[in-house]
Amino acid sequence: MTGDEGAENCNKFVEILGLRSVFPLFMKTHKKHKKGGISEDDHEEHVSSIIASMLKHCTAANKLRVINKFVENDHAKVDRLMELHFKYLTRVQNVDDRIEKEKQARLQGGDIIDDDQEDEYYLRRLDAGLFTLQLIDYIMLELSCSSGVSTIKQRILQLLNMHKGSITAVRNVVREYAGNIGDAKSKEHGDAERQRLLELVNRF
């Protein structure tokens, strides 16, 4: 359901009542069974990716059906979205802090941080859930800036304030996500998507 070719799949998914299956999975992560099954982190990444793709690719009518899911039951799914935001933000920030300390120690010892080492650091951030955090915060911005439903953004800002969260942190996450956007088929498409994300950041 990702990429432009996924647009048709996203719309079909909504039209065959797929929202009835994906949002219960979003609201409650099933614990991994001892014998097989995906992990909790993989589950949350996969479901977040589906929702992000629907918000990006669906027609206006189908996108509204997705948005309405975040309004029903007194914005319960917005509450869940923010719960996941804080979960993954904390994990990524903890890893970032450890990486920064390692960098400082290496530099003080005369080491050089080369591209291979930077790649290794980035992989550690991904292992901590960076990509899932980027998906979640992208969903937050789409709902806040493109849904046309003011109560969603109000709820997001309220929860950020309650938990001493930061609008700047959300913007930085999506800004980094935009910076890593690429498209093997079309540089123009990659540039357009990057610009779209940055516009969401500026409007949040």
Topology of this protein?
Elements: H1 7-15, H2 19-27, H3 40-57, H4 60-108, H5 115-127, H6 130-146, H7 150-162, H8 167-179, H9 187-203
Helix pairs in contact: 1-3, 2-3, 2-4, 3-4, 3-6, 4-5, 4-6, 4-7, 6-7, 6-8, 6-9, 8-9
Short key terms for the protein model shown above:
204 residues, globular
Describe what you observe in this structure:
The two termini are 26 Å apart. The chain is mainly alpha-helical and 204 residues long. 77% of the residues lie in helices and 0% in strands. The protein is globular. It is built from nine helices and no strands.
**Taking all residues together, what is the mean pLDDT?**
90
Distance from first to last alpha carbon: 26 Å
Q: What is the H-and-E element order?
A: HHHHHHHHH
Largest sheet: none
Number of helices: 9
Structural class: mainly alpha
Provide a quick synopsis of the model:
This protein is mainly α.
